Amino acid sequence: MSGLMMPVPDAAVLGRRGEIVAALTRIVGAEGVVESSVGLKPYESDGLTAYRQPPLVVVLPRTTAEVAAVLAYCHREGVKLVPRGAGTSLSGGALPLEDGVLMSMMRFNRILDVDFEDRVAVVQPGVTNLAITRAVEHRGFYYAPDPSSQIACSIGGNVAENSGGVHCLKYGLTANNVLGVELVLITGEVVRLGGRHLDPEGYDLLGLVIGSEGLLGVVTEVTVRILRAPETARALLVGFSSSEDAGRAVAAVIAAGIIPGGMEMMDRPAINAAEDFVAVGYPRDAEALLIVELDGPEVEVDHLIGEVEAIVRENGATTIRISVTPEERLAFWAGRKAAFPAAGRISPDYLCMDGTIPRKKLPEVLTGMQEMSARYGLRVANVFHAGDGNLHPLILYDANIPGELDRAESFGADILRLCVKVGGVLTGEHGVGIEKRDLMPVMFSEADLDHQMRVKCAFDADHLLNPGKVFPQLRRCAELGRMHVHAGRLPFADIPRF
Ligand SMILES: Cc1cc2nc3c(=O)[nH]c(=O)nc-3n(C[C@H](O)[C@H](O)[C@H](O)COP(=O)(O)OP(=O)(O)OC[C@H]3O[C@@H](n4cnc5c(N)ncnc54)[C@H](O)[C@@H]3O)c2cc1C
């Protein structure tokens, strides 16, 4: 893998592959184990396809008891394990390890209970995000967080990444919509955090687990809130001659006390790529495009549409279209929802970055990105969850041209450094994974990282769950003075000693 430092594979574990496969087969049955090189191929990367690594073996458990038995085995035998949902992570969170078991949760695909009275659904982690809404929409309900990948990504992956989407500005991220989980610890112990109600007792361990990127345990059940679908929704499609004007309009809408159901922005390269792809009438001459959706009771939505129209006009809108029918509203969104695949048509490869900034810093960050684009000689197309200040610059490159991936990665790192410099953060919703791992010290001090690692060590002292992710290299429980040498075997032998 190019330039990325991962934990050195443990030769002893590699040498015991046959024995490990046999043990896993005893737990889940032969149909739940994938070991052939052809069978392992689909698992060798996630959505961050720049990095690939076939796992030692893939295991597909079907029950919590099987998950617990596999984890207990890995714990006992010192074998690493990477949990995987649908493999759509854009930060490399589900990248396998050569000497690690990859646990796919895709056979956990059942909706266990829907309680319309309590407004909760209890689902297995391999259920796709969209399938939850599909299961409750006949009664006028839906599950609010809606990543663009919702047709494919799993709710277990959403929990691990604290995923967001267009509707999260108004309805919150995964963390605000998950009430409880069942979690299996690396020891095989099964714990329940939260339940069917808000505000669980004791420490907020559920909050700790949501967004923990598969480093603390394997989620085997999720209880989510379901919401009543809004009575109506309408959207405005607004073009601007500069992203500064669009950025000001976003800030003005929020400042007016209006919280749209979604407020997304695209820059000119993204507008054109999307329009080429779905042809829904996006204004190709606009430098920035804003889609603002208002939802709620019809009378309120009609009123707010008028207010937002006035605000965007005051801030220099050059074109305004307002949806009248649901079909028209969906057409406005079609280009935005297809922005990532559309970028795939204008470039052989792209890196999708994910940083968050204070909204008012948008013009400064966009200017900075243009300078970087010229300096690195790489194009960039931008889509934003504008209301949240969450940027998704798509850096376009060609992996077949030597050096372009390295340049794209350096460009991406500079964008994230800029996000932190203007008061933002390294990630909005895609997680840290391997992608932003080595940038963590840009945002966190040594003491911050040590404290975060102490939490990790409390759950997984041997660092067997998803190692190599989130924490910059050379930071393990061993470095926190907790090294225990057993039978002359030095733990974390791959860490250089000083
Ligand atoms: C085209 C496209 C668009 C996207 N749009 C968005 C978007 O709008 N918003 C957004 O937030 N993200 C988006 N993503 C990123 C991705 O879809 C999300 O991060 C998603 O939550 C990952 O889910 P998954 O099931 O694919 O998880 P995976 O990719 O399989 O895994 C992601 C992480 O979760 C861990 N994990 C998975 N399942 C479990 C489990 N049961 N227990 C413990 N840990 C687990 C893995 O170890 C890994 O660290 C997009 C991705 C693509 C490809």
Automatic annotation (TrEMBL):
Its needed co-factors are:
FAD
- Keyword entries, A-Z: FAD, Flavoprotein, Oxidoreductase
Q: Where is the signal peptide?
A: none
List the InterPro entries hit by this protein, alphabetically: FAD-bd_oxidored_4_C, FAD-bd_PCMH, FAD-bd_PCMH-like_sf, FAD-bd_PCMH_sub2, FAD-linked_Oxase-like_C, FAD-linked_OxidoTrans_Type4, Oxid_FAD_bind_N, Vanillyl_alc_oxidase_C-sub2
Q: Which domain of life is it from?
A: Bacteria
Q: Where is the FAD-binding PCMH-type domain?
A: 51-229
| Name of a matching Pfam family | FAD-oxidase_C
* GO terms for MF: FAD binding; oxidoreductase activity
Question: In its UniProt entry, what is this protein called?
Answer: FAD-binding protein
Question: What organism is recorded for this protein?
Answer: Methylobrevis albus
Q: What is the lineage of its organism?
A: Bacteria, Pseudomonadati, Pseudomonadota, Alphaproteobacteria, Hyphomicrobiales
